[in-house]
Amino acid sequence: MSKIACIIVEDEPLAARVLADYIADVPFLELCASFRDALLATEYLRTHRVDLLFLDIHLPKLKGMAFLRTLAEPPAVIVTTAYHQYAVEGFELNVTDYLLKPFGFERFLVAVNKVRGGVEEKELVPAAASPKDHVYLTVQKKKVKLMFADILYIESQREYIRIVTSRGVLLSKMGTHDIEALLPPEQFRRIHRSFIVSLARIDAYTADEVEVGGQRLPVGRGYRDRLGGL
């Protein structure tokens, strides 16, 4: 089995250092990166293979559980926190284990061995041939399946996003950067700080606007070059 690629998302330097030391002592683990901010980790997850995420709950900007909900296909997750009241919520989000700070090396090893077993099982199963075609988003406290093919465009509305689809309109409490991280980049493009469009749904466009589903959407100055090659 190849080494399990890990990242740490932890804003406390001492806690991050302890995790890094523990990881270094386990032969089948490899620490690839460490972040103090969940938003920076999001970008890394988009472009790198990660098998295991060590995640603190109380993070700046975006809290750990909220960050976990934005991930369409999260790696194995081990939550590390000093607050036991989040354990139930963590297990509802399918985290592999929940480590209460301070924890020793033996308890850490129990947790990562659970991940090791899961990774070994995955390596025995052939990867699916078809790419992911949907994502689940929280809409009015429910997880709603959103097919990529149904999306016309997405509009930012402060702390919410308005998703216009061929089936209707959905509102979800998240930012455009968060939803953009979940969308396949070959199918969607940001044309404005407030708008993301489905490339397949564009009816017409100029340097200043895009027509999608009968609506005219503005193209921001800094995004005009992104329409090249359509």
From TrEMBL:
One of its GO terms (molecular function) is DNA binding. The keyword Plastid does not apply. Keywords: DNA-binding, Phosphoprotein. Residues 5-116 form the Response regulatory domain. PROSITE patterns: HTH_LYTTR, RESPONSE_REGULATORY. The modification 4-aspartylphosphate is found at D56. Residues 135-202 form the HTH LytTR-type domain. The keyword Phosphoprotein applies. It comes from the Bacteria. PANTHER family: REGULATOR OF RPOS, TRANSCRIPTIONAL REGULATORY PROTEIN YPDB. This is LytTR family DNA-binding domain-containing protein. It comes from Flaviaesturariibacter amylovorans. The lineage of its organism: Bacteria, Pseudomonadati, Bacteroidota, Chitinophagia, Chitinophagales.
